[in-house]
């Protein structure tokens, strides 16, 4: 195997694939995209409903991390699935296509991230996107029609999604035809990262287009996709990153980067890789005897995640996913249907419909998101129930609680120590209480209530809203991630920032971080499209602004 490349990118997830594909197409440099997991060519990855089999437990395609016990969640450990293999978490995610709101990015810019305002990032969202609604056209002010990331409407929307949307309208929330349009408010269908009824993950978008072939590089001779090769640490000469260390043929080997090492290992993997390589808070690294390259106190801090709580309702309808004899027969038919024309229940992303709502009057933008799931999705599908039903998750879009990622071992192959600090800011809990009430008010509307059924865990909550303490207890007992950790290699201009607005790691040379970990704050939506946007924009920063040097004050050493 060739051992020296111009760029070495660690992690073939949403951002890493976008960056690698773009870099390979825009110049003659050689690129190594080094990914811990394997290829994504698998039925369970490409069949949308297949992720139900991958989500519940750790395995070859899912890191399946656990958090440390969370005081805010009655001491429970949260679950943190993360995609492993080409496509990263875009091979395991719920496929919902969302960007957040313009104000989210304007806040980034206002916090010192020059070049990351909405006007700056919108062209990258559009460049990335091929939205079926504007297919082939590039004159839409918000959507792209010719990018590599396919975005579609669901092929076979579930009738219960329609009932949810109508129930939400009965509860006073307007219909919204496009959550990435002018306004986010209201209820509607999600658009999904699918094409022809199949998952369109970042690997298909940017690497191989879903075609076979072991190289996975879409025929580009300068792109070397090295799957199944976990990076152990970044190699430095002084403070300059010169490559990455991997274990191959029974020994550690250096893959050398002539120009840059780019870390795209995700919100947990990227800070972990920096820390095991000697870039991070000095005292913490000292606990593990890791030789210091640079004391960067912000690495691993600022962890933010969307915490959600689900309300489930058992309803005896085989239109919904569920466990029953009738359900098995229906599923067999659905498998044949999917094989025939890629439609039917197997093209479902489960969280088919949703809503953006405000927890209280007077907010400029919705602060709560609802995911209506056409199954009783309980505890990340780790707890199954007999029968059929639906659920609705409510999550807080801009939580104030902060956590951190730390090492549990100096070995990169061990799981990191993840502490999201859920509900450490009590205001988050109060906003979720409002969210639970909103979900129940929608469940109570005729379009859903007429179908009957019984709530699994929330039936005892009062309808008149007079039992906030009980709702708080319900949330503490049941809430968990809806899978959007970000912020652990935060971009900014202050002394605790990890990367500058060109995504260069502060205090060292030839090293960048490019993935969801650089987000200063969570956006008001899910995080796959924003991670891809980050990869797209990083390409332009690397290609077109390589010689701009930004000088920042060095962080003071911790006492
Ligand atoms: C279950 C689930 C559901 C989700 N649902 C949605 C959704 O519906 N819509 C949405 O927009 N977002 C969703 N998300 C979130 C979204 O998918 C992620 O935010 C996004 O994919 C993150 O991209 P990334 O590039 O930062 O990291 P990732 O895509 O996670 O990629 C990181 C990659 O780095 C690799 N890596 C890590 N360490 C190493 C190492 N040492 N050596 C080599 N490779 C390494 C990993 O194997 C992985 O492939 C979901 C996520 C999950 C897990």
UniProtKB/TrEMBL annotation:
Lineage: Bacteria, Pseudomonadati, Pseudomonadota, Betaproteobacteria, Burkholderiales
InterPro entries hit by this protein: FAD/NAD-bd_sf, GMC_OxRdtase, GMC_OxRdtase_N, GMC_OxRtase_C
Pfam families per the UniProt record, alphabetical: GMC_oxred_C, GMC_oxred_N
UniProt keyword RNA-binding, yes or no: no
Species of provenance: Cupriavidus malaysiensis
Record-given protein name: GMC family oxidoreductase
PROSITE patterns, A to Z: GMC_OXRED_1, GMC_OXRED_2, PROKAR_LIPOPROTEIN
Cofactor(s) needed by this chain: FAD
Family per similarity comment: Belongs to the GMC oxidoreductase family.
Keywords linked to the UniProt accession: FAD, Flavoprotein
Domain Glucose-methanol-choline oxidoreductase N-terminal: start-end pairs: 83-106, 266-280
Stretches that traverse the bilayer: none
């Amino acid at each position: 195997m060739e051992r020296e490349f111009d760029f070495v990118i660690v992690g073939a997830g949403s951002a890493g694939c976008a960056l690698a594909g773009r870099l390979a197409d825009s110049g003659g440099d050689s690129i190594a995209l080094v990914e811990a997991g394997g290829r994504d060519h698998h039925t369970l990855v490409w069949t949308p409903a297949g992720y139900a089999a991958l989500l519940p437990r750790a395995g070859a395609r899912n890191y399946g991390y656990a958090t440390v016990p969370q005081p805010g969640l009655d001491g429970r450990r949260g679950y943190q699935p993360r995609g492993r293999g080409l496509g990263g978490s875009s091979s395991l995610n719920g496929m919902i296509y969302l960007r957040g709101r313009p104000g989210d990015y304007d806040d980034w810019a206002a916090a010192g991230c020059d070049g990351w305002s909405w006007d700056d990032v919108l062209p990258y969202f559009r460049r990335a996107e091929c939205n079926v609604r504007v297919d082939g056209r590039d004159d839409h002010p918000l959507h792209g029609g010719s990018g590599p990331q396919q975005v579609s409407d669901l092929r076979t929307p579930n009738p219960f999604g329609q009932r949810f949307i109508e129930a939400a309208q009965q509860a006073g929330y307007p219909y919204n035809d496009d959550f990435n349009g002018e306004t986010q408010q209201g209820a509607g269908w999600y658009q999904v990262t699918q094409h022809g009824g199949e998952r369109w993950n970042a690997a298909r978008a940017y690497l191989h287009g879903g075609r076979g072939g072991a190289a996975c590089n879409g025929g580009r001779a300068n792109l070397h996709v090295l799957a199944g090769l976990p990076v152990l640490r970044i190699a430095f000469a002084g403070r300059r990153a010169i490559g990455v260390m991997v274990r191959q043929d029974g020994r550690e080997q250096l893959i050398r980067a002539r120009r840059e090492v780019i870390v795209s290992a995700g919100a947990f993997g990227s800070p972990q890789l920096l820390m095991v390589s000697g870039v991070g808070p000095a005292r913490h690294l000292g606990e593990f005897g890791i030789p210091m390259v640079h004391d960067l106190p912000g690495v691993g801090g600022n962890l933010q995640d969307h915490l959600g709580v689900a309300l489930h309702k058992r309803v005896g309808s085989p239109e919904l996913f569920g466990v029953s004899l009738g359900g098995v027969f229906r599923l067999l038919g659905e498998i044949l249907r999917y094989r025939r024309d890629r439609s039917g229940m197997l093209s479902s992303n489960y969280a088919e419909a949703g809503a953006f709502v405000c927890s209280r009057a007077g907010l400029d933008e919705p602060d709560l998101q609802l995911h209506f799931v056409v199954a009783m999705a309980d505890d990340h599908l780790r707890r199954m129930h007999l029968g059929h039903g639906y659920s609705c998750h409510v999550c807080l879009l801009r939580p104030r609680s902060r956590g951190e990622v730390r090492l549990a071992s100096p070995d990169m192959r061990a799981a990191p120590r993840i502490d999201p600090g859920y509900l450490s800011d009590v205001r988050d809990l109060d906003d979720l209480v409002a969210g639970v009430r909103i979900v129940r008010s929608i469940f109570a509307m005729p379009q859903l209530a007429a179908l009957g059924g019984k709530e699994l865990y929330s039936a005892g909550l009062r309808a008149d809203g007079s039992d906030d303490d009980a709702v708080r207890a319900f949330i503490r007992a049941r809430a968990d991630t809806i899978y959007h950790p970000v912020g652990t290699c935060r971009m900014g201009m202050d002394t605790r920032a990890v990367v500058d607005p060109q995504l260069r790691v502060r205090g060292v040379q030839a090293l960048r971080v490019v993935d969801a970990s650089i987000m200063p704050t969570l956006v008001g939506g899910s995080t796959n499209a924003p991670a891809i946007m980050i990869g797209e924009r990083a390409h332009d920063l690397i290609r077109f602004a390589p010689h701009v040097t930004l000088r920042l004050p060095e962080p003071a050493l911790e006492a």
